[in-house]
Inverse folding.
């Protein structure tokens, strides 16, 4: 079986290589694609140097294509990849809201992936991190309302986002004014409540993605969700403060126990021991940290909690590879016969 | 009339001097006090060098004492200051919850200050910033529930908090691990959902202060408030994402107009022009920036908004001076006859 990565040289591409090295996914060959500018460069995979090729115009001779080169490229090229016989696991938002494209977090709705018609969408990173904590609570207690405030890292904008934070912070520490190119305003020591484009309703697209995608993954269109998405000067891992109004009352201890036996989650909730979710501890970790689990003071029987998840991993690369693993484990990924 | 500052050499003390320079408060003399360690140092006020004295054991011969040297010093010494005839405007949390101590934000409940018995409390900085936006909405629409997530600057822990952020960020940029002394964990490029001590209910004292103090200032004990207080790597200005459930439905435009005519608030809400509240623009500003005003997606007729306020100013020094101005304007501050 042959796996291809499109967008291999970006921040998520880098993580895809690293996650694939440790993955249980069985495949014979890995192809790497990126923009023509990166063609000819090499990346190391399991000790071997692999050469990056320019993404071709038409089909790619692979069984699984992990696409992470942005929405425009996915939109333009995925139909040809599917026509060529590949299953496309797409990290962009290009197809997430199409009715016949499953939007999948394997721990939550893996079975949806089996109903694909060639394309499977990977959710927005903020959604993927939140839904790991919220889905088990929804199954057990029925979430009616969900209020989310995010603390999003600069790597949400890729490697260039992290570079801008580091370079501009260096400028500020040397007494110079910070400038901005990637972000809407200078990011060092600042907070920017603006991620992705503003919609007519005053919410950003990033905020609406959390609402739209959480409902689709959980499979409950009645769920009410309000989000404030905020960029802060961190490098990686998105944190989120979440307040939940529930159908059936929960206690913090019951939620702690529920999440402790839920896949993809690490309960990190010992305030006395100064243990709670933080980018410092969640970065590089596959599991999403969940803590600060406490009774809501605004909803009877509701729950407040705080999550931190490495959005380059669970929010992107890891989730994509886990979708491929899920397909293979369920016999839904068979390599083509090649000469 | 004589004004004294206790804690003159700290981050808030520094702002008190600057705010007093521009204040309409009429007084003849300014006395500066701090710990014995700082005694003998000088600070500039209106071009004059003033010598800092060690805070005495007993009374201080001043008409107004602006106290900002921490809860322990206020608790221990304020009774003697009051006995000596001074009005104490206290920036610590020592007296905020005493039934006979008014907790005052002049734009919201200035008249409460006139009922003091010697001590007037200045609210917690996070509360002061939020309440300027929320109180006018409460008066017009009746707030039932308020959900707050904070993005708090390191200067909430004083000058030493800012120093730790700058020094440790420098370490990280030079490839070294950050350490921590002021904060519970290293703060550079990190997020710490832990400010002040944890309470039995799983909330921190900082989070409960927002609930307790907002209710006291607004004068409505039925208001339900849930807060998540989070330290982030910024220098000054606290930002807050706030979701409001209202008795009577509001529209974003009506709230924008209401806040535009409210004191202490600058409506900064033009997403198309990339105008919204941010530490970068709110730092050093007396008004609290309010923006991202939009319909709540979880409460019918409710409102989501975002605020950013320089917590060293409105959250501390500015509010304290404004309380003194309010007392003087209402004839409630008369200088003693001195020989």
């Amino acid at each position: 079986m042959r796996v291809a990565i499109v967008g291999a040289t970006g921040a998520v591409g880098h993580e895809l290589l690293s996650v694939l090295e440790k993955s249980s996914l069985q495949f014979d060959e890995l192809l790497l694609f990126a923009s023509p500018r990166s063609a000819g460069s090499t990346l190391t995979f399991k000790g071997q140097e692999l050469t990056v090729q320019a993404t071709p115009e038409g089909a790619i001779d692979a069984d699984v294509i992990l696409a992470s080169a942005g929405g425009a490229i996915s939109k333009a090229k995925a139909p040809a990849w599917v026509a060529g016989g590949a299953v496309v696991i797409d990290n962009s938002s290009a197809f997430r809201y199409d009715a016949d494209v499953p939007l999948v977090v394997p721990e939550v709705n893996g079975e949806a992936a089996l109903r694909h018609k060639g394309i499977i969408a990977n959710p927005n990173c903020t959604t993927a991190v939140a839904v790991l904590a919220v889905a088990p609570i929804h199954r057990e207690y029925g979430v009616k309302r969900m209020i989310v405030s995010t603390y999003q890292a600069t790597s949400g904008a890729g490697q260039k986002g992290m570079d801008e934070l580091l370079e501009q912070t260096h400028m500020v520490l040397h007494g110079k004014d910070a400038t901005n190119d990637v972000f809407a305003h200078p990011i060092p020591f600042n907070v920017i409540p603006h991620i992705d484009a503003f919609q007519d309703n005053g919410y950003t697209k990033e905020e609406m993605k959390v609402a739209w995608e959480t409902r689709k993954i959980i499979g409950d269109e009645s769920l009410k969700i309000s989000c404030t998405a905020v960029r802060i000067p961190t490098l990686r891992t998105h944190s989120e403060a979440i307040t939940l109004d529930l159908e059936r009352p929960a206690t913090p201890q019951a939620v702690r126990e529920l999440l402790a036996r839920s896949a993809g989650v690490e309960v990190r909730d010992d305030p006395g021991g100064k243990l709670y979710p933080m980018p410092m501890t969640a970065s590089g970790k596959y599991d999403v940290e969940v803590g600060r689990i406490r009774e809501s003071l605004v909803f009877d029987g509701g729950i407040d909690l705080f999550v931190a998840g490495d959005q380059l991993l669970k929010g992107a690369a890891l989730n994509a590879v886990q979708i491929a693993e899920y397909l293979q484990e369920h016999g839904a990924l068979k390599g083509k016969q090649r000469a």
User: Anything to note?
Assistant: DSSP finds nine helices and 13 strands in chain A. The CA atoms of residues 125 and 316 of chain A lie 6 Å apart. Chain A has a mean pLDDT of 97. The first helix of chain A runs from residue 11 to 22.
